[in-house]
Design brief:
Blueprint: H1 27-43, H2 48-54, H3 60-69, E1 78-79, E2 82-83, H4 87-100, H5 102-122, H6 125-136, E3 142-145, E4 161-165, E5 168-179, E6 186-193, E7 196-203, E8 209-210, E9 225-235, H7 248-282, E10 284-285, E11 288-289, H8 294-322, H9 328-353, H10 364-376, H11 381-393
Parallel strand pairs: 3-6
Antiparallel strand pairs: 1-2, 4-5, 5-9, 6-7, 8-9, 10-11
Helix pairs in contact: 1-4, 4-5, 4-7, 4-8, 5-6, 5-7, 7-8, 7-9, 7-10, 8-9, 9-10, 9-11
């Protein structure tokens, strides 16, 4: 056999990347991923179990400034101090952040994909210049007020309203389950007006604005979650986002944020999978590592298949977003699949770890409980199923 006809030498099998997905990434993509992974390993992982147990994120402002310094806030936006990264790079960052904790990814998601994205996409030039550079640097934290106590999946029925009073706007209402609310310097709030639903840029120091923190959570405990109370908050005429009217505005922001969740959920799943592999190869029962038993290997194989299929799906959606071809229905596809599979991976990992799976010495139960929130926020399972159902049949089954 001549050398030219010999089979090419295959690369070794990599248990951490069994499909060779890293081959699809550019050097710049890998650099972003490695930077965020190193930051999370240094600043989050040594402390997050304690934060979770105490139900607080005491260094959120410090973390926000550090995330700003590494370019992670509003990173897929361009100009105004933003990094201008690709959608794939933003997704990789979300994966690494959620591998540390969903609460940290939520901080970044709400800051960049909701509050900053709304101002960047629909704001005036003055609003962009006033807020985006400071938000990109982590000097100002933002929040996004859409969900209400009685109107989650049906934002069109929101009761928060804004009325004109001379040249001013006066906002009244309540928003619920708002990430970053109690520490935010600015809130993007959506309200009913005589013109339709409008978005408003609300400095949180405004008279009549308050944001009591929600306590007693059993999920996303290392995260700040709040209620927003707007009691006749008076704003100037130029506080309204000028470039959008109607639900197209907030739903467009949610599409951008849901894309980050598609990646982030796989970070939580990867963390649990890695913990399960390490445990299965070191924990001995009946005279051998439990990873040597067929049932355990079957679990690990199924977890690996769903994990890396999910990462491959996220990568595909990221390339479509970078090409300007990503549809909201495709984001629903990714969010529905990846969060659902991530929870299943976490639960299976818990069975491999046995009783140790419920201990905060391991990340598994923390990720599993966090993902219970990720499963339903920014669109429940049922809502994304109906989005896909309508796309597949052409029939609207929402009502």
């Amino acid at each position: 056999m001549s050398p030219s006809s010999a089979s090419p030498k295959l690369p070794p099998f990599d248990p951490a990347d069994p499909l060779g997905i890293d081959d699809l990434l550019e050097p710049e993509d890998l650099a972003v991923r490695d930077t965020v992974r190193a930051w999370a390993a240094d600043r989050v992982l040594p402390h997050v179990a304690q934060w979770y147990e105490r139900g607080e994120l005491p260094v959120i402002r410090e973390l926000a400034r550090e995330l700003g310094r590494i370019g992670a806030l509003g990173m897929s936006l361009s100009g105004y101090g933003c990094a201008g990264a690709s959608a794939v790079q933003y997704g990789l960052a979300c994966l690494e952040l959620e591998a540390a904790d969903s609460g940290i990814r939520s901080l970044v998601s709400v800051q960049g994909s909701l509050a900053m994205y709304a101002i960047h996409r629909f704001g005036s030039e003055e609003q962009k210049r006033e807020w985006l550079p400071r938000m990109a640097a982590g000097e100002v934290i933002g929040c996004f007020g859409l969900t209400e106590p009685d109107h989650g999946s049906d934002p069109a029925s929101m009761r928060t309203h804004a009325k004109r009073d001379g040249s001013d706007w006066v906002l009244s209402g309540r928003k619920m389950w708002i990430t970053n609310g109690s520490v935010a310097g600015v809130a993007v709030v959506w309200a009913q007006t005589d013109e339709g639903i409008r978005g408003f840029v609300v400095p949180t120091a405004s008279s009549g604005f308050s944001a009591p923190e929600i306590k007693h959570k059993w999920s996303l405990r290392a995260s700040v979650t709040s209620e927003l109370v707007l009691d006749e908050v008076r704003l100037p005429a130029d506080a309204v986002l000028p470039e959008v009217t109607g639900l197209r505005g907030p739903l467009g922001c949610l599409t951008h944020a849901r894309y980050g969740i598609v990646w982030g959920a796989m970070g939580a799943a990867r963390s649990c999978f890695e913990a399960a592999v390490e445990y299965a190869t070191s924990r001995e029962q009946f005279g051998r590592p439990i990873g040597g038993f067929q049932l355990t290997q079957a679990k690990l194989a199924d977890m690996a298949v769903e994990l890396h299929k999910g990462i491959l799906l996220a990568h595909h959606l990221g390339r479509r977003m970078d090409a300007g071809r990503l549809r909201p229905e495709q984001v629903s596809f990714g969010k529905l699949n990846n969060v659902r599979e991530a929870i299943d991976i976490c639960r299976t990992a818990r069975t491999i770890l046995g009783a140790n799976g419920i201990s905060l010495e391991y990340p598994v139960m923390r990720h599993a409980t966090n993902l219970e929130s990720v499963l339903t926020y920014e669109g429940t399972v049922e809502m994304h199923q109906l989005v896909l159902g309508k796309a597949l049949t052409g029939i609207d089954a929402f009502r």
